[in-house]
Design a protein that fits this description.
The protein has 139 residues and is α+β, with helices and mostly antiparallel strands. 30% of the residues lie in helices and 31% in strands. It has one domain: Immunoglobulin-like (Sandwich), CATH 2.60.40. The protein is built from 4 helices and 6 strands.
Length: 139
């Protein structure tokens, strides 16, 4: 009886430690592409900046922002969003998100589980994205 209880406990512990939700969905992400728009509204504006990385720390740091606090409603009045794409194996898109970095409009919008999610970007997340935008590649 004790052996069955221990086995059940270990199985339960193993499943409870696995990632679920958005973190589980992005667990196999191996590339991150971030596009910063210059604000002109022109998709191929030369002032736009695209940053690509395969650094696991950068991918994990950005993925963690997707689990942030829910953003307050009404944020859709913000200007042109920047974009993030998480990839697996170089070509499979796992998730695409729009984000806004202005201090009065700092959140992510992305589809997950058939609903649009709006999550606040933390100060650490905003600093990370700003560093990428500025061409600094430390995570």
């Amino acid at each position: 009886m004790i052996t069955r209880s221990l086995l059940f406990f270990f199985i339960l512990a193993a499943f409870s430690c696995s990632r679920t939700g958005i973190q589980g969905h992005l667990e196999d992400a191996d590339a991150l592409v971030v596009q910063f728009h210059a604000g002109s509204g022109i998709a191929d504006d030369p002032a736009n900046r695209v940053v690509e990385t395969t650094d696991k720390n950068a991918i994990r740091k950005m993925a963690n922002q997707l689990d942030g606090k829910p953003a307050p409603p009404g944020g859709f009045g913000c200007k042109t969003p920047d974009g993030i794409m998480f990839f697996q194996s170089g070509s499979k898109v796992l998730l695409t998100a729009d984000f806004y970095l202005r201090s009065d409009c700092r959140f992510l919008v992305y589809p997950f589980n058939n609903t649009m999610q709006m999550r606040m970007i933390s100060t650490e997340g905003a600093d990370f994205l700003q560093a990428l935008k500025d061409g600094k590649h430390y995570y």
